[in-house]
Specification:
single chain, 256 residues, two-stranded antiparallel sheet, 6 helices, binds fe (ii) ion, metal-binding
Length: 256
């Protein structure tokens, strides 16, 4: 039986001192000669500008600081005011999501049964939640700390004696979307003030643009439902909504 020599790759013995220069890998083939070479051919040298920062960080023990409020990523423009404003907006998005979820649940009741509207508000609830998640991701990316606040419990019933339930629900949604817009404007202004010479993250501006389009969509729905009134036509409107046949129109807004 013949034996096949297996190539072995061995690394240089690890150094015990942090002060020594980085070791090069030793690649040794079975039966061959030792060959010493740099793995990438690039030897990392800390930039002179970075060295004092590293020295300061290690002196303050920041790298080993387990406190959750300490951030490695945070830059001075992400002030406590910006952090608090983002947390406030997270709460607004969650609250609106909560109300839309309640409206969706109402329209899915066995004695209401307008499933197009129920599905619309279920999707909108998810969308508002995704806005909250977007701001959570932004806060974490910038080294801010997310703080969750309490939510206001929504109403269970959305029927209105004069308007009926569909118009009432969409008028409420329109009021909430406009409230959200004013809150987003406030967030943008806080960021603008705190970022001073730099522009605030474009994400805040993007959210404003999207909000303007959402307001127009809900406004279109309110206008249609006001024409329809309450009764049999609402059932047809609900079916059309379920099939994606309810018209609404909005253009890109360069300045929100
Ligand atoms: Fe939103």
């Amino acid at each position: 039986m013949s034996t096949i020599a297996t190539p072995r790759v061995m690394l240089a013995r690890p150094t015990t001192s942090h002060t020594r220069a980085p070791r090069r890998a030793v690649i040794r083939a079975a039966g061959g000669k030792d060959k010493t070479e740099a793995i990438t051919g690039v030897v990392f040298q800390p930039f002179e500008e970075v060295a004092p920062v590293l020295k300061d960080t290690s002196k303050s023990g920041a790298l080993n600081d387990p406190r959750p409020e300490h951030s490695f990523a945070r830059y001075s423009t992400w002030t406590e005011t910006v952090e608090a404003a983002v947390n406030e907006q997270i709460n607004v998005e969650y609250n609106i999501s909560y109300v839309y979820h309640a409206i969706s649940t109402y329209f899915d009741r066995d004695n209401v049964s307008l499933h197009g509207i129920a599905e619309y508000f279920r999707n909108e609830s998810e969308e508002e939640k995704s806005h909250a998640q977007y701001l959570i991701d932004l806060q974490n990316t910038r080294g801010g700390r997310v703080k969750f606040n309490a939510l206001v419990p929504p109403e269970a019933n959305y029927d209105h004696p004069e308007k009926g339930d569909a118009l009432y629900a969409f008028e409420l949604a329109l009021a909430l979307e406009k409230l959200n817009y004013s809150k987003l404007l406030g967030l943008w202004e806080v960021a603008d003030k705190n970022f001073r010479t730099r522009r605030p993250p474009s994400s805040f501006e993007d959210m404003l643009h999207e909000q303007v389009k959402d307001i127009k969509q809900v406004s279109d729905y309110v206008a249609q439902l006001r024409r329809i009134g309450k009764g049999h036509a609402v059932w047809h409107w609900d079916r059309a909504l379920a099939e994606g046949k309810v018209d609404h129109r909005a253009v890109e807004s360069p300045k929100a």
